[in-house]
Amino acid sequence: MNKFNILFIVLLLWVTMSCSEDEKTTVNETMNVVSETTFDNVTVKIFSKNNEFKTGYNNIYVKFYKNNNEIEVNISKLMPMMNMGMHIHSTPNEAYYKEDNYVVLPVSFVMPTGDGTYWYLDLAFEFDGIEYTGEAKFKVENSENVKSFKHNDVSYFVTLVKPMSPIVGMNDFRILINKKESMMSWPIVENFSVEVKPWMPDMDHGSPNNVNPIYSNNGFYEGKINFTMTGLWTVTSTFKIDTISIGEVVHTINF
Ligand SMILES: [Cu+2]
């Protein structure tokens, strides 16, 4: 083997090793502690992969600690709730699951934390034969990602899930639709047909080749939107049941 070959192999090994190291540390590097609450002697830490939670689709990551050591608890309740002073309400959420030692709870926050209000996880869990219950509070900032409309006195919430990092050209378009049945019940909506229309209000033009979202699963509808240039776009989604329009929402995307 000549010198050149050895150099090449060393270089290849170095590149491979640094890549796999990057992959391993990505989760920790981007995970931020959003809040920390202690229930007697157990601490609940809430994490986000972004700097903060925003209205719209988020994963809430949760870990439990005793004496600074991670512990595994038996959860019997993990519900995202908002306390608005006069009343409390929940928000659209999926079942929680475990991933990389985190308990992961996908939610769509329908409103931001405001004056005299707060978001919290309503928690009940057991560790070492002791039952713990309480509230783990956290903050939700405002965003443009959740819009709502009313039809027959029922409110529908439409969460923009994709694109979160829009590009010039074709973008995956993904929305989540929930119906507010009560303060605690936000079921998914499966029976809408959706028409999507991107528009650049400052320039008075739309774009060609958009693909209307169709229902996929778990309340998500998937389509494509074409942003032909950067700038401020409105994306109007019109909802129909049996070809009859029942409402629309407008999401604003600026990039
Ligand atoms: Cu609220």
Write up what this structure looks like.
The chain has 2 domains: 30-141, Immunoglobulin-like, CATH 2.60.40; 146-254, Sandwich (Immunoglobulin-like). The protein is mainly β and 255 residues long. Residues 15-28 have low confidence and may be disordered. The longest helix has 28 residues, at 3-30. It has one helix spanning 3-30; strands at 32-39, 42-48, 53-54, 56-66, 69-71, 74-83, 88-89, 97-99, 102-109, 118-127, 130-138, 140-141, 146-151, 154-162, 169-180, 193-199, 211-217, 220-227, 232-241, 244-254. Strands 1, 2, 4, 5, 8 and 9 form a 6-stranded antiparallel β-sheet that branches. Strands 13-14-15-18-17 form a 5-stranded antiparallel β-sheet, with no helix packed on it. It contains 1 helix and 20 strands. Helices cover 11% and strands 57% of the residues. It binds copper (II) ion. Residues 82, 84, 89, 111 line the site of copper (II) ion.
Summarize the structure.
With 255 residues, the chain is mainly beta.
- What is the H/E order? HEEEEEEEEEEEEEEEEEEEE
CATH architecture annotation of the largest domain: Sandwich
Described by strand count, sense and barrel closure, the largest sheet is: 6 strands, antiparallel
Sum up the overall morphology in one term: globular
Structural class: mainly beta
Descriptive terms for the model:
binds copper (II) ion; 255 residues; mainly beta; 1 helix; 2 domains; Immunoglobulin-like
List the helices and strands and how they pair.
Blueprint: H1 3-30, E1 32-39, E2 42-48, E3 53-54, E4 56-66, E5 69-71, E6 74-83, E7 88-89, E8 97-99, E9 102-109, E10 118-127, E11 130-138, E12 140-141, E13 146-151, E14 154-162, E15 169-180, E16 193-199, E17 211-217, E18 220-227, E19 232-241, E20 244-254
Parallel strand pairs: 3-12
Antiparallel strand pairs: 1-2, 2-4, 4-5, 4-9, 6-7, 6-10, 8-9, 10-11, 13-14, 14-15, 15-18, 16-19, 17-18, 19-20
The chain binds copper (II) ion (CU).
Copper (II) ion (CU) is lined by residues 82, 84, 89, 111.
